[in-house]
Each structure stands twice: as structure tokens, then as C-alpha cells.
Amino acid sequence: MASAEVIRIAINGYGRIGRCVLRALYESDHHPAMQVVAINEPADLATIAHLTKYDSTHGRFPATVEIDGSHLLINDDVIAVSHHESLDNVDWSVSQPHIVLECTGHYTLEAELQMHLAAGADKVLLSQPGMAPIKPIVMGLNQQLLSSQQPILSAASCTSNCITPVIAVLNRCFTIESGVITTIHSAMNDQPVIDAYHHTDLRKTRAAGQSIIPVDTELASGIGRILPDMADKFEARALRVPTINVSAMELSIVVADKASVETVNNALREAALGDLIGILGYSDEPLASCDYNHDARSGIVDAGQTRVSGRIINVLVWFDNEWAYANRMLDVASHWLQKQ
Ligand SMILES: NC(=O)c1ccc[n+]([C@@H]2O[C@H](COP(=O)([O-])OP(=O)(O)OC[C@H]3O[C@@H](n4cnc5c(N)ncnc54)[C@H](OP(=O)(O)O)[C@@H]3O)[C@@H](O)[C@H]2O)c1
User: Which of 62, 80, 277, 308 has its CA 20 to 30 A from that of 42?
Assistant: First the structure.
């Protein structure tokens, strides 16, 4: 693409992440250099417009949202909306996006995602880890892997974006031998309000607002794909809790080198102010999860919660699982397309 050309984005699946991506675009420096030109989402256009305008988590969208025929109008920007439920029917030949942000949560195979290319898109960025050979990209860690040759990449998971920068910093300073991670994650749309069928993970059949629910997670294997020297060093579990946004990760590691609360916090603060600025945050304020709502940083270390016992380091890292991730998808898309 020519350097002055607007980057044309399509969003497939306009749910929590899809809508956050659109809203984050208008709050970021990426607009108007990047524009959403098409959305495919099964819901009807009136509902799409309503949920773009009003959001229980992120508040009212400070833009004009209107409908014109089959288009969504955001301020002066025109977005073509289609309502296909299957990738077989998606057609990007008119909108010709430079990139599709695949945000349905349903497709992780390269063969499936190639259908976006066949439908007229140049590239696909997946909003979750993909099956090999789809590479995960985490801003601040491995964005140098972005190349113009690869048409399909993943922005990894929100949890990988939160914790792998912290792991990289602590390994650099203290040499990690092994670790266990617990994610304390807000509820998501794959959980029912009241007990229901429709999920392969039996615990996810249980009412989201009623319980702390352990769920399956692929985080441990995902870490090795992003930080190869950390492969097989971690175990992970995840708990869903009855809040609607913002999550936390508790990282426990055994290290080779001597550490203290002060040296751990100093290393993380230095990285947050240095090479990981905007990606990693550092806070010594006594905050709760709601204070991190709408925070665009991938993870924020809660310095007052750092604990060290012998060679065990334990840190707590907060993240807005929706907003931070949506911003990282835009960052990856922007870096990637500037490589053209
Ligand atoms: N929410 C988070 O915090 C978060 C953070 C990082 C990554 N992610 C990942 O992002 C993905 C989406 O999560 P989400 O929370 O945004 O889920 P969501 O709110 O359920 O959004 C998914 C949307 O895609 C629609 N959809 C389903 N099948 C479709 C299809 N074939 N074509 C077009 N649209 C389709 C869904 O419609 P229906 O409801 O009608 O099926 C829904 O509106 C998941 O892989 C998730 O792991 C989520």
C-alpha cells in the first residue's frame, strides 16, 4: 500500500472486542490514518448502532452514531455492515480491507482464516491465539516478527499481553526457573447468566454472576510460543469472577538470582518507564479493579502487592481485558501495515 493511503480495516464479529476496537480507534492516534470501512456481524443494524453508542462498561461513545441504509455512520465515516453467520458467505470485495480483525472467537485455523483473504482482504489479525503456524504477536516483545510476507497473524490473548512483558523483565533481572500463574478474569459472553448447556468446558455452564469459576486456559503453552526460552517453565490456571470488566494475574516464579521486594519493584518500574512505556504500567496506589477500567496499558504492576520469599517472587498485575487488548490489536495492525 502507498504510504499516505488510509489503512482500511474490516471487523468480523462485532461483540465486546470488535466494538472496543472501533471505539478505541476513535480515542487513539491511529484515526484517521486507520479507518473501519466494514463490519460483519449477525446482529441487526439498529442493535449494532445502539451497542456502539451505549456501553455498560465503557460508557457512552463520544461520537455521532447513525444508520443510513445498510451503513453505520460514525461522525463523517461510513461503514458498510453485513450480517453473515458463516465465513463461506463473507464478501470483502467491495470494501477491500487491508486487514480483517477476526473477532468472532470461532476461528483459529489457518485454513478458516484464509477465507477472509479469498473474500478480498489483504491480511487477517486474529483476536485470540491461533493454531500453528499462526504466530502470536505481543507488542513490546516480538513485534519485530511482523513482516509483509505473512498474511495471517494473531494478537495473542489478553492474558499473554498482560503477563509476558512482566515475565521477560523478571527473567532478564533474576533468571526464571519455573512459575505458576493464576488469572482472575472478569466474566465473558461465553458464560450464561443462569446455568445453561452449550459449552464443552463443564464449569462454563454455570451462572456467571453467582460463582468464582475455574475455567480451562491455554496460557502456559502460549507463553512458550511468545518467549521460546520460557517454554515448558510455566503452569497456569484461570478463575472467572462476577465482574464485567478488568482482570488480574498473579504470577509466582522461582528464580535463580537473589531478589527482594525492592529489587523486583525497581526492575518493573524501570521497564514501565523505559522500553515498555505504554505497554507495562506500574502503580504504588492502593487501587481496586474498577480503577483500571478503560486503561489502555497491557498490564499494570500493583507494587504494593509484590511479595518475595526466598527464591519465590509473587507479583499482581492488573489489566483491562477489553480495552487494553483492543488497543493492542490496533497497534499490531498499524505496525504490520506500515511494513508494506
Ligand atoms: N472479551 C475479552 O475480554 C477478550 C479479550 C481478548 C480477546 N478476546 C477474544 O476475542 C474473541 C471474541 O470475544 P468477545 O468477548 O468479543 O466475544 P463476543 O462479545 O461474544 O463477540 C463475538 C461476536 O461475534 C459474533 N459472531 C459469531 N459468529 C460470527 C460469524 N460467523 N461471523 C460474524 N460474527 C460472528 C457474535 O454474535 P453472536 O453473539 O450472535 O454469536 C458476537 O457478536 C474471543 O476469541 C475472545 O477470546 C476477548
Answer: 62
Specify whether the CB–CB gap between 219 and 157 falls below 8 A: yes
| Phi, psi of 261, deg, nearest 5 | -55, -40
What is the number of the ligand 1 atom nearest to the C-alpha of 104? 24
Could you tell me which residues come within 8 angstroms of residue 220 by beta carbon, excluding any fewer than 6 positions away?
181, 234, 235, 236
112-132 pLDDT tens trace:
999 999 999 999 999 999 999
290 is catalytic: no
User: Do 190 and 63 sit in the same domain of this protein?
Assistant: no
Q: Ligand 1 atom closest to Cα of 127?
A: 10
What residues are in contact with ligand 1 under a 6 Å CB criterion?
Answer: 12-18, 40-42, 85-86, 103-106, 127-128, 157-158, 188-189, 321-322, 325
Number of folded domains that form the chain: 2
- Decide if 93 contacts 81 (C-beta within 8 A): no
Compute the distance from residue 223 Cα to the ligand 1 centre, in Å. 23
Residues 99 and 167 occupy one common structural domain: no
Question: pLDDT for 213-247, tens place per residue?
Answer: 999 999 999 999 999 999 999 999 999 999 999 99
Same domain flag for 177 and 294: yes
Residue 321 alpha carbon, nearest atom of ligand 1: 3
301 assigned to some structural domain: yes
Other residues' Cβ atoms within 10 Å of the Cβ of residue 141: 21
Nearest CA to ligand 1 atom 18: 15
Q: What is the Cα gyration radius of the chain? A: 20
Q: Which domain holds residue 293?
A: 159-321
C-alpha cell recorded at residue 281: 504500567
